Amino acid sequence: MEINVETTKDGLVVLVEGRLDAVTAPAFEKNLAEWIEKGETVLQLNLGKLEYISSAGLRGILSTAKRLKAKNGRMLFFGLQEPVRDVFRISGFDSIFQVFETAEEALQKR
After folding, report:
1. Which residues, 6+ apart, have CB-to-CB distance to 12 below 8 Å?
2. Gap between the Cα atoms of 89 and 108, Å rounded
3. pLDDT above 80 for 107
4. CA-to-CA distance for 26 and 3, rounded, in angstroms?
5. pLDDT-based confidence at 106, cuts 50/70/90?
6. Which end of the chain offers a freer environment for a tag, N or C, measured as fewer CB atoms within 10 Å?
């Protein structure tokens, strides 16, 4: 997994590439927790290059969402590939979180 961050005028955009699984989820959580501790309250996650997400990855997302909720923040997701979109749909994450097709759509709801 690789995480790249872009700071835009609209906030922090996090590009997650590769696999988000039991091996990579702890680093994912740690990175996002650091940004939240620095004051970020809206995380826009670009999952367009995420090939796979496991239950450990989903737990990492939930853990991060709880941290954000404590600071009145939220997570927005966009660009999901079909396999990841399927996992979000099956797990019910698409009803818990805001999921958009594009960054522009996510920004409109920001």
Report:
1. 5, 6, 35, 40, 42, 43, 44
2. 22
3. no
4. 12
5. confident
6. C
Compare 30 and 12 and report the one with higher pLDDT. Answer: 30
User: What top-level class would CATH report for the domain 21-93?
Assistant: alpha beta
CB 17 within 8 A of CB 2: yes
**Does an H or E element contain 97, and which?**
none
Tell me the C-alpha to C-alpha distance, in Å, between residue 108 and each of 9, 65, 105.
Answer: 13, 20, 5
User: What does the angle CA 22 – CA 61 – CA 63 come to, to the nearest 5 degrees?
Assistant: 95
Q: What digits encode the pLDDT tens for the residues 86-95?
A: 999 999 999 9
Per domain, the residue ranges of the chain are 21-93
